[in-house]
Design brief:
Elements lengths: L8 H19 L14 H6 L36 E5 L7 H8 L9 E7 L2 E6 L2 H11 L6 E4 L5 H4 L16 H11 L7 H36 L2
């Protein structure tokens, strides 16, 4: 007995279509256009993609403006003469070193800056040069942890001495060293009275005491800065 060879996909499709046509003829109905064959990919390739724009947008449809993140600031509104930035609305747990982390890039730029605290969530960043303040503002205007804007309040505190101290008097000067150099070059030995020798020694002691006091002040200032960063 001869076995019927198995039908391939195309033969099965043609056989299916012939059976369907025979059923239509027997029922007396007119033949209609056959529905697209789900196994035939040639028609789909000719049709091409129906939706050229992905994401559910029809051709000619404009996306909403809300799809872009926009920051409401105008760089040209910054006044070039302003060298103070107002930073506010940051967490109350912020310390001095947190603000330094934001502006550390400008610490050595044209004199750097200093920080003046106003309250727990606001501080003023005082720059030495307006160009540095402008750059810091434009670079950090979109900061996510705080609000930053040019400061437009009173600036009387800039002229005041922060320690309310009187200007230091000019240190006392002496020609003692100059005389020693001249006399040593000429090979001349000048006799000095005990009073003159005592006065010169006192001047030297005062100078040493002043240098020691400045050294101690510098050391204390460095320790205070380290303590502020470690808070």
């Amino acid at each position: 007995m001869n076995q019927i060879p198995p039908l391939n996909l195309q033969q099965m499709t043609q056989h299916h279509q012939l059976l369907k046509d025979n059923r239509l003829l027997r029922s007396g109905k007119s033949m209609q256009i056959a529905s697209p064959n789900p196994f035939d990919w040639s028609n789909r390739q000719k049709e091409g993609p129906k939706n050229e724009n992905r994401g559910g947008f029809k051709k000619g449809h404009k996306k909403s403006k809300s799809s872009k993140i926009e920051f409401n600031f105008d760089p040209d509104a910054y006044e070039g003469s302003t060298r103070i930035l107002d930073i506010f609305d940051f967490p109350a747990s912020f310390k001095t070193h947190h603000l330094h982390e934001i502006f550390q890039e400008y610490e050595n730029m044209r004199g750097g800056y200093r920080i003046k605290w106003m309250d727990d969530t606001r501080a003023l960043i005082i720059f030495e040069h307006p160009a540095t303040a402008r750059k810091a503002y434009l670079d950090n205007v979109t900061n996510q942890t705080a609000q930053i804007k040019p400061y437009d309040g009173p600036t009387d505190f800039l002229q005041k001495n922060p320690n309310n101290a009187q200007p230091r008097a000019r240190p006392a000067t002496t020609d003692m060293v100059a005389k020693r150099l001249v006399h040593g070059a000429l090979g001349v030995r000048v006799a000095r009275s005990p009073e003159q020798r005592q006065a010169e020694n006192q001047i030297l002691r005062n100078a040493r005491d002043q240098r020691e006091q400045k050294r101690n002040e510098y050391t204390k200032r460095s320790q205070d800065l380290d303590a502020a960063f470690n808070e």
